Amino acid sequence: MKRLAQYFLRGLVVITPAALTLWACWWVFSTVDSVIDVGIPGAGIVLTIVGITLVGALASNLLTRGLVGALDRLLARLPFVRLLYSSTKDLLNAFVGEQRRFNRPVRARLDHAGTVWTLGFVTAEGAERLAMPGFVAVYLPQAYNFAGNLIILPAAHVEPVEGEAAEIMAFIVSGGVSGSAEPIPRG
Q1: What CATH class has 105-173?
Q2: I need a labelling partner for 157 at 20 to 30 A (CA). Which of 6, 21, 35, 97 fits?
Q3: Where are the domains of the chain?
């Protein structure tokens, strides 16, 4: 009986992530297809990808860059819209934009003895905006969550971590279980 329970749990570990991923993909495709209904399954998502790529190409064009800038300034001035627009824009730029912010993984010491550390990303040097020279802003993503915390630490309490930023982010967000079994080297 114990062996059957182990098999069941192992099967659950194998099937659940695959089933959840397939369901999420199916949901996205069917939702987009229902909004952009052209009668061909999957055509809505293809049209969406082509449209987003076209907007990206136009936004990169010198002639349309002014129009994009004007729209950006307009949305940044509207109450409530400004909060949603600027937050979404900053988040996307931090991960995939030209001004990536989560590209400097660090280990931050949280106590004087050096026994409590956390992993994060330096997002600002000097913290001049806060009148705290010699300090750095470190973003700490939370495990199994899209949230995080921003802490301000003395620069001496932060050490760079070797490795790709995406790999370190995956390690943090997974609660330390994703990635290789190799230890993270000290910077």
Answers
A1: mainly beta
A2: 97
A3: 2-95, 105-173
